[in-house]
Specification:
Layout (H helix, E strand, L loop, with lengths): L3 E6 L3 H12 L2 H8 L3 E5 L5 H6 L11 E6 L16 E6 L3 E5 L8 H4 L3 E6 L2 E7 L10 H20 L3 E7 L15 E3 H6 L13 H19 L3 E9 L4 E12 L3 E9 L16 E4 L6 E5 L3 E3 H12 L5 H8 L4 E2 L4 H12 L3 E3 H5 L26 E6 H7 L17 H8 L33 E3 L10 E5 L1
Parallel strand pairs: 1-2, 7-8
Antiparallel strand pairs: 1-20, 2-4, 3-4, 5-6, 6-7, 8-18, 9-15, 9-16, 10-11, 11-12, 13-14, 17-18, 19-20
Length: 477
């Protein structure tokens, strides 16, 4: 008998559950329409006390499902319990034989974060996780590394007990460049400088070789210009408020005399020194316990958007959208996640013999992202990243996994194309961006809340943008 498992970062369960109840009567009715057997939620942002005081608002007591919760139990500076992070797993009654929210360090600092809960269903240990992000200035990278190490140890322990392992949730990482918006991908400039040394230029797509040569010819000039980089306070007009406001902006000097501005205005002065903005230097943090320097941004790597801007403003080389697309999908481009984090997931996939269920079924899919910045309406331009995953032990996947229906797309489009991915983000334009003058995301017509319901599939669930800045991922086993 197959099992349909879904995972979703809800960015605050109470507000999401309220919207689901508004549009579908109840959370349980919504789950039945999706045909979920197991639903793993991340970033529920609640507390044990809130759950006990108002289980109905949390949909914590359902007829056909059991719910298991791991809220954040850390205390804030004032001594109150934090409602940050938190995960929850909903299982059809009779499926789950065991649940544990103290699986990383036996109820210690990591478990108190409320980022992991493990449920045993049939012969499967399902880890529902919300992995820490790097944080502002990468201050949480050390925590992230500790979390991932403890998680891997716990997964291995479950295998030693004879259980198959499933890891699902928001992993806050991108290990494949194609799972990130093209202009946000990192160009490996060292690789560009080495181009031609291996004798494989003929394998490159037409036009990429010329772009790489342009980078080689002008990189020295770009380096010289970046040495002059300064941040200055500027006054700009904000259409949303109809007022002038103070912002900060980067400037460089080109050819020793021409002053050029870079990027967009920055609202917070402390963001000016962020270690990955317009730099060819390595960025990272010092590990608290060992003192080791952990690289989060390798040297000689730069976002494609920044490189393109510098090529135009410093070297007068303007690349077309077609050229940028080619470079973004070339061997010279990598994802922007920290190398140590990418190494972790590669080891889990290769050494621990797990598979990325989405990649196994949809390896040719492009720009199928699961998270976007809602504040800048990025979903409506499909400028996001795939950071939500369901990883499955290879043996279990090979014996049980099914594809189900194809990725959501109109019949006249290739479902693996970037065009189809952009269509699915907005249901062909039926979900609209928040108005520029403010007011937040608007409610759509009633029918736009039912198009999320499709037959079970191993892929992506396009939940409405009003529910969360993430969408769901799923697998049939």
């Amino acid at each position: 008998m197959s099992l349909y498992l879904a995972s979703w970062n809800v960015a605050g369960w109470l507000s999401t559950a309220a919207k689901i109840q508004q549009h579908h009567g109840s959370v349980e009715s919504w789950m039945r329409q999706h045909k979920f057997d197991i639903l793993c939620l991340q970033e529920v942002k609640t507390s044990d006390r809130a759950l006990a005081e108002n289980p109905h608002a949390h949909a914590a007591e359902l007829v056909d499902y059991e719910t298991f919760w791991a809220p954040c139990r850390k205390r804030t500076k004032t001594g109150a319990r934090s409602s940050f992070s938190g995960v929850a797993t909903f299982c059809k009654k009779g499926l789950c034989s065991h649940a544990d929210r103290n699986v990383l360090d036996k109820g210690g600092e990591l478990d108190e974060e409320g980022r992991c809960i493990m449920t045993v269903c049939r012969n499967m240990a399902i880890f529902n996780v919300y992995v820490p992000n790097n944080g502002v200035w990468n201050v949480q990278l050390s925590l992230k590394i500790k979390f991932l190490a403890a998680l891997r140890t716990s997964m291995r322990r479950m295998r030693s007990l004879g259980l198959d392992v499933i890891l699902c949730g928001d992993l806050n990482l991108v290990y494949r460049a194609c799972d990130q918006y093209p202009m946000s991908r990192n160009v490996d400039l060292e690789a560009c400088l080495r181009a031609g040394e291996d004798g494989n230029e003929e394998e490159e797509e037409e036009g990429v070789r010329e772009m790489v040569q342009q980078v080689k010819d002008n990189l020295g000039k770009i380096e010289d210009a970046l040495k002059t980089k300064v941040a200055e306070e500027v006054e700009i007009f904000i259409p949303a408020t109809q007022r002038k406001e103070r912002r900060w902006r980067f400037f460089i000097v080109v050819d020793g005399e021409r002053k050029v501005k870079l990027g967009k205005p920055i609202s917070k002065e402390e963001s000016l020194g962020y270690p990955t903005s317009y730099t060819l230097q390595a960025g990272g943090v010092k590990e608290e316990e060992t003192g080791e320097f952990i690289i989060c941004h390798p040297p000689m790597h730069m976002r494609l958007a920044e490189l393109s801007e510098l090529m135009e403003k410093v070297a007068a080389v303007c690349w077309s959208e077609e050229q940028l697309h080619k470079l973004a999908n070339s061997k010279y481009v990598k994802s922007r996640s920290a190398p140590i984090v990418k190494q972790w997931i590669r080891s889990v996939l290769d050494d621990d013999e797990m598979v990325d269920s989405f990649v196994e079924f949809h390896s040719k899919a492009r720009c199928r992202f699961t998270c976007w910045d809602q504040y800048t309406n990025e979903r409506y331009r499909n400028e996001g990243a795939r950071i939500d995953y369901i990883l499955v032990d290879k043996k279990l996947f090979s014996s049980s996994a099914r594809r189900g229906i194809e990725l959501h797309s109109p019949s006249h489009m290739d479902p693996y194309s970037a065009e189809a991915a952009a269509w699915a983000c907005t249901e062909g334009g039926r979900w609209v961006a928040a108005p520029f003058e403010g007011g937040g995301i608007q409610d759509g017509p009633e029918e736009t809340y039912t198009c999320q319901f499709r037959a079970p599939s191993s892929g992506i669930l396009y939940t409405p943008p009003q529910y969360s800045d993430h969408i769901g991922v799923s697998v049939i086993l």
